[in-house]
Specification:
heterodimer; A: 242 residues; mainly alpha; globular; B: 50 residues; alpha+beta; two-stranded antiparallel ribbon; 2 helices; 74% helix
Chain lengths: 242, 50
């Protein structure tokens, strides 16, 4: 049983050189993820999307069960805690969320929850396992998560401050504070739909400052991720050169 | 060595075979068939849905 479990773990993980079974499994999973997303690109379901849902859901359920069963190999320690630790990892949570839409097939038409279908979106995260570049990006984001969180806090504070200022100075323009938040977000990201625009000189002044500072604040996460990514690539290159 | 030999088999042509190799071949074949089925279903869904 130990041998079977070990072999299954090897197959589930990204294929090594010459491992045909693992390679075939990787290709199947990648195809299942891509095809499983097709129903989300269509306005209405048809008989083929129904079958896609059944086939991909069965594959994903079996994949999830196999991954949980081999969690002790993945986590590196032979203990029941390995299973609990694995189930709580982000990728395992995404795996579980991505198989939830299968319930949609068994619910009566009147009780169908449309939101459940949107959980198919989580299947995209399954692709992270099968691309080396995606794995690097995921590792990079994990390494700089503290900096990214700090920038996120800064952005949220900046949006709230801009929204509060403009909400007080342009009372006729915004019906609710949510409108002001929407305006601040659209301005700070330099999207600028123009559906809500300030009319008073002070409101326009705030918009100008908001747009200028917004560009700098929004560019921060890009800079952090790019720097960390380049650092990771350089490390990998020097590792191979050594 | 003896245990490994017992797990294998000799077919009618006299070639020494291994059960694990056969299982791997079956697994690979099942994976490839499912991949093709999914690809066909995907294409058909796109054609019918658009």
């Amino acid at each position: 049983m130990f041998e079977i479990k070990k072999r299954l773990y090897e197959v589930l993980e990204v294929s090594g050189v010459g491992d045909k079974a693992s390679r075939a499994y990787d290709v199947l999973m990648t195809m299942a993820v891509i095809v499983g997303l097709i129903p989300m690109t269509l306005k209405a379901d048809n008989i083929f999307t129904h079958w896609i849902e059944i086939v991909t859901s069965v594959i994903f359920i079996l994949d999830y069960i196999a991954r949980v069963w081999t969690a002790d190999f993945k986590m590196g320690y032979q203990n029941y805690r390995a299973y609990i630790a694995y189930v709580l990892t982000p990728l395992a949570i995404f795996d579980l969320l991505s198989i939830l839409p299968v319930a949609y097939l068994f619910l009566p038409v009147t009780n169908r929850i449309t939101l459940l279908r949107l959980f198919r979106f989580f299947r995209v995260f399954k692709l992270v396992r099968y691309s080396k570049t995606m794995v690097i990006i995921a590792n990079v984001v994990r390494k700089v998560k503290k900096q990214l969180f700090a920038v996120l806090i800064l952005i949220v504070i900046y949006i709230f401050v801009s929204a509060m200022l403009v909400f007080q100075l342009e009372p006729n323009l915004f019906n609710t504070f949510f409108d002001a938040l929407y305006w601040a977000t659209i301005s700070i990201t330099t999207i600028g739909y123009g559906d809500i625009s300030p009319v008073t000189p002070i409101g326009r002044m705030i918009t100008m400052v908001s747009a200028l500072v917004g560009m700098a604040v929004i560019a921060l996460p890009t800079g952090i991720i790019t720097a960390a990514y380049m650092n990771e690539i350089t490390k990998k290159k020097s590792k191979y050169e050594l | 060595m003896g245990d490994d030999f017992n797990k294998g088999f000799i077919d009618d042509s006299g070639v020494y075979g291994n059960g694990k190799e056969r299982q791997t071949k079956i697994f690979v074949a099942v994976c490839r068939i499912l991949t093709v089925i999914l690809a066909v279903l995907g294409v058909l869904a796109l054609i019918k849905g658009n």
